[in-house]
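User: I'm writing a tutorial on reading structure tokens. Could you give me a worked example: one chain, its sequence, then its tokens, then a sentence or two explaining what the tokens reveal?
Assistant: Sure. Here is the example chain.
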Amino acid sequence: MTHGDFRPWISVCLLVATLAYVGCTREPTEPAKKASSPAPTKGQPTAESAPPATSSKLIANLGDPVGVLIISGERNGYMEPCGCSEDQSGGLIRLYDLAERLHQQKLPTAFIDLGGLIKNPAGARGGFEQTKIKLDFAIRALALLKCNALALAAEDLKVGVGETLGLFFNSLGETSTKVVVANVEPAETYASAFRKSVIATSGPVKLGVTAVIDPATLDQVIDPERAVLLPKVERPEDALPKVLADLESRSDYQVLMVQGPPELARRLAGAYPGFDIVVSTSEFPDPLNHDPELLNGGKTMLVTVGQKGKNVGVFGFYQGGDQAPKYQLVTLNKRYDGPAAAMKKLIQDEYRETLKGAGVVENILRHDQANAAPGSRFVGVDACKTCHPKTVEHWATTKHAVAFETLLKDPKPNTQYDAECILCHTTGFEYNSGWVSAEKTPHLLGNQCENCHGPASRHIADPDNVELRKPMVLTAERADKNRQCIQCHDEENSREFEFIGYESEIHHKGLDDYKDPKVHKPLILKNDARGL
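And here are its predicted structure tokens:
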């Protein structure tokens, strides 16, 4: 999957592990009952025990609903777990499996998404071009899931307003999936992909769904086309009354998604108690509160599902009596590793084949390593072993040395063409003279010395030059203080990472004594494609 935004130089590579995800679902809650309500009804909040492990029902806590609503959002570019950590959760493939299995249990399902499919394309670790491709496939995935409503998010417009609206139009225009936003109108060219609201049916239950976006977040989209392609932007307060009144006349429950700060969602929920469910953005990847926040005397449930697509919210709706909707936050863990063949074909096969064809790794925007001696180039580990033989011998015993091979052995196809994976499995990626491809830069396979110490060409040409050595000196204390290893060993890819324990496995201070006279002579690389 993919993962956070990084532009600094690469440090220690993540340790690759087999997928063995663990997780749990949460107990459901119910909202308070409305004074007057259509069937299905809305009762007092309760909590129930978790389902037994042997339950045949996918989400047994929900009981026997006549309809289900799935809520996802703020994917932030995380298409699927990459597999570098045992307990990663989330991903579009697991979401598809959840929906597919609910269908197999004959549970009618509606599905909405808060938006935020990508994040910060200018600083994304896979580069701008890969982020555009990722947005395209995320939109196509929602269409495959038959998503009823996708909220408009400012982050999704940052690849270019025209680019994003074109993807919406091409992928959603003729499908049942629509971009829903009550307070923004697009240019007429793209109108077929947009709606102010939709009625989503889930069995006998009619769900009136709308969304708003905070105009202040749109102001963060710096694009001269924005005013032309999104010519009308209102305050949410000016757009919602009319839309809510219409939905109340045509649906059993009214749902509002709010793209903006969480306090905006809470304020709008209080101002418009006609909404039964309000979906807010999240401040953290995992919601601090897994249960809804009850507002308006218990009439309105405010929910968040977190970031990175790790969790989804699931509502169950019930016919007749006093039983109210129940809510459960579901973690997309190993339990949802079903076949999901159609989504796997899209996300694993077609997506990465597109990355390969577009050459996103080879063509990524490159720059100089800021902390290196001016003019330094990456030379590869073979150049290091002349003077540091024992250090290189120790490196060869670590998983850093075989980092690239793990991509080639990955059961998921073509991960070596995914820039987000290449970043931590090769040397010098994103830097001038760094990794380009296995054919052009075979000397930079794996996570080598220069990922931590910087490009070494000037050092090997003048090994006794103290000034040239200084930029390459990296103590364990400095690496820990600068959180250098976290560039790869982040919370998603190496959840159990602790610097002291991991550093001890690669520690190499004092392995070489440098008494051999040859280590003080310039190293000249002959017949080398590195331009040295």
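What the tokens reveal: The two ends are 37 Å apart (CA to CA). Residues 364-520 form one domain.
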